[in-house]
């Protein structure tokens, strides 16, 4: 199938390079549109795949990138306007039957979503698509630059901005090249000055940190009426944004949350996608969505990494059981939970809530509130059956020597501990985890502002370490006061083998993945002075809460997504 390069004229006259691939059969056809800053030519095999299944396929360079004219300003309003112009352009061709799916991954998912929800009220007008596929969506400057809990995502933003920012092309290795020249590049202060330390100008770097408004697309998505397929990975840093988008969408919405990272791969090798061919799924879902065959509900599935199995993910109406939540809080406070067993069921819940509690509809404040048949299970700190304290109940969080995000080796304890470390007993049986996890800590700090980072690592019987969960929050608590701190650990989908031990680290930094808190009360992006912070973790009242599935009720992901 031949791919032709045409040009869409934006409202301000800028010409946008656009590749078009048509099916061999006579039209008109439904169309899939991908608008990307990463190079339209990288999608040519994908375009041919869509065309082979009867779709006209379109890939476009966003303005100012690769073959398109103009100047690119990531996340500014030109994506809305250019997207709407492209939708109208597609519908104006004889090969189009007027039905359009907007699709994309990462920033391209943002392009698809902003076209869907900000034009014509998100109700399928001439400038909006009829369905959206958003994979690992990077929803805005604010969502990508910071965790929802405050800390700045330094390493990922530096990597993306040096590779793509303020340039018409891309250099995926730009940050690694810069680090080879200066291994301490990300340590220099202030963080806002990174653009002055490169071999090219990066004037937009400071703007990355200026926008703190989160949730705009999720809010607008509540008014959308077209179907959404949200695809994410439990190892993707934007997983919770993907879940929030799905939960809040106004039209029929489907969630596929696999055992993948941001590139939709597992580990170093391309993912088998949990025995799912994503291309085939996208085609099948798109045909069902455009034909109006999707139920007007939220449906989703979450992969159980390491097993090839999938669980159904409940929607936002599957609220928490107050009685179960109360029982979890009692376990955290008293340290009475037994890991690996379900001890959260309260005695004689009211009849109106019995069925919900029996289904284990979780207690999490965000994310997926406990997958089907899942109950929050408590590993209390400082107890024989929970997490045993190894060292570091009192530690120093020194930004000059931060705990590193790229090193899973834990130093032996001593007087100069840089983190608190706890360890569980080996699991007596395999455990399936599917849903929201969190750490609940009682802690003390001596400074005006502190980050609390929690890393949970699974240690197999041989001692091999594999990351399981991570979370970090920023707090401004009164110095010297013991306070309760909840650290969300994201949505998990994992199977842990018998004999696995859980290691929990609590630290004040997670560098270079996250910018260092200076502990002075200053903005970490503009601060030039660092000072150590003394911390205390109180084991009484602290616990790890994981979503252990009580019963194994697997689903077939493709039929679940496409009905």
Task: Report what the structure shows.
With 563 residues, the protein is an alpha/beta fold. It contains 12 helices and 22 strands.
Count the strands? 22
* Main β sheet profile: 10 strands, mixed
The best one-word shape is globular
Task: Identify low-pLDDT runs.
Answer: 267-273, 318-325, 337-372
Q: What's the helical proportion of residues?
A: 10-25%
Distance between the termini: 31 Å
Which oligomeric form is depicted? single chain
Note the beta-strand portion: 25-35%
Largest sheet, spatial ordering of strands: 1-2-4-3-5-6-7-8-11-12
Record the SSE blueprint:
Blueprint: E1 3-9, E2 15-21, E3 29-36, H1 44-52, E4 56-61, H2 78-91, E5 96-105, H3 107-118, E6 131-135, H4 141-145, H5 154-164, H6 174-181, H7 216-221, E7 228-233, H8 239-248, E8 253-258, E9 265-266, E10 269-270, H9 278-290, E11 298-304, E12 309-312, H10 322-334, H11 351-359, E13 374-380, E14 387-391, E15 394-397, E16 420-424, E17 431-445, E18 450-459, E19 465-475, E20 483-496, E21 501-507, E22 533-549, H12 557-561
Parallel strand pairs: 3-4, 3-5, 5-6, 6-7, 7-8, 8-11
Antiparallel strand pairs: 1-2, 2-4, 9-10, 11-12, 13-22, 14-16, 15-22, 16-21, 17-20, 17-22, 18-19, 18-21
Helix pairs in contact: 2-3
Compact description:
This protein is of the alpha/beta class. The protein contains 12 helices and 22 strands.
Keywords:
ten-stranded mixed beta sheet; five-stranded antiparallel beta sheet; 12 helices; 22 strands; 20% helix; globular
């Amino acid at each position: 199938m031949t791919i032709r390069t045409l040009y869409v004229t934006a409202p301000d006259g800028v010409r946008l390079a656009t590749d078009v691939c048509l099916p061999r059969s006579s039209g008109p056809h439904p169309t899939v549109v991908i608008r990307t800053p990463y190079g339209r030519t990288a999608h040519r095999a994908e375009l041919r795949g869509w065309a082979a299944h009867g779709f006209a396929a379109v890939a476009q360079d966003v303005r100012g990138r690769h073959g398109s004219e103009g100047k690119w300003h990531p996340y500014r309003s030109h994506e809305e306007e250019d997207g709407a112009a492209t939708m109208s352009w597609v519908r104006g061709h004889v090969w189009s039957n007027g039905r359009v799916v907007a699709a994309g991954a990462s920033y391209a998912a943002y392009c698809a979503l902003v076209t869907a929800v900000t034009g014509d009220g998100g109700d399928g007008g001439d400038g909006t698509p009829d369905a959206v596929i958003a994979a690992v969506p990077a929803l805005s400057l604010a969502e990508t630059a910071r965790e929802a809990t405050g800390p700045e995502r330094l390493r990922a933003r530096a990597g993306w901005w040096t590779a793509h920012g303020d340039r018409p092309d891309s250099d995926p290795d730009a940050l690694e090249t810069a680090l080879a020249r200066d291994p301490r590049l990300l340590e220099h202060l202030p963080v806002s000055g990174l653009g002055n330390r490169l071999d090219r100008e990066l004037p937009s770097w400071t703007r990355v940190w200026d926008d703190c408004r989160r949730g705009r697309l999720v809010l607008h998505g509540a008014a959308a009426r077209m179907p959404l397929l949200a695809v994410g990975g439990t190892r993707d840093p934007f997983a919770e944004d993907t879940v929030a988008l799905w939960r809040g969408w106004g039209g029929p919405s489907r969630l596929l949350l696999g055992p993948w990272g941001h590139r939709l791969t597992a580990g170093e090798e391309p993912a088998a996608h949990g025995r799912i061919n994503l291309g085939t799924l996208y085609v099948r879902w798109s045909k069902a969505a455009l034909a109006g065959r999707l139920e007007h509900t939220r449906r989703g599935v979450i992969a159980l990494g390491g097993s090839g199995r999938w669980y159904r993910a409940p929607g936002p109406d599957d609220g928490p059981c107050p009685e179960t939540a109360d029982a979890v809080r009692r376990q955290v406070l008293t340290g009475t939970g037994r890991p690996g067993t379900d001890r959260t069921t309260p005695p004689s819940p009211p009849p109106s809530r019995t069925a919900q509690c029996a289904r284990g509809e979780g207690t999490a404040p965000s994310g997926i509130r406990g997958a089907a048949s899942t109950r929050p299970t408590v590993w209390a700190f400082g107890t024989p059956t929970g997490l045993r304290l190894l060292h570091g109940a009192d530690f120093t969080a020194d930004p000059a020597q931060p705990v590193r995000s790229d090193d899973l080796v834990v130093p032996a304890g001593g007087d100069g501990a840089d983190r608190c470390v706890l360890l569980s007993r080996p699991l007596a049986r395999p455990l399936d985890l599917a849903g929201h996890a969190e750490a609940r800590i009682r802690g003390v700090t001596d400074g005006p502002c502190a980050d609390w980072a929690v890393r949970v690592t699974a240690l197999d019987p041989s001692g091999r370490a594999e990351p399981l969960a991570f979370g970090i929050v920023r707090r401004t608590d009164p110095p010297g006061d013991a306070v309760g701190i909840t650290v969300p650990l994201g949505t998990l989908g994992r199977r842990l083998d018998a004999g696995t031990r859980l290691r929990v680290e609590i630290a004040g930094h997670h560098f270079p993945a996250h910018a260092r808190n200076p502990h002075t009360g200053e903005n970490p992006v503009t601060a030039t002075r660092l000072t150590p912070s003394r911390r205390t973790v109180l084991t009484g009242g602290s616990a790890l809460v994981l979503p252990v599935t009580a019963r194994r009720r697997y689903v077939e992901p493709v039929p679940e997504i496409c009905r």
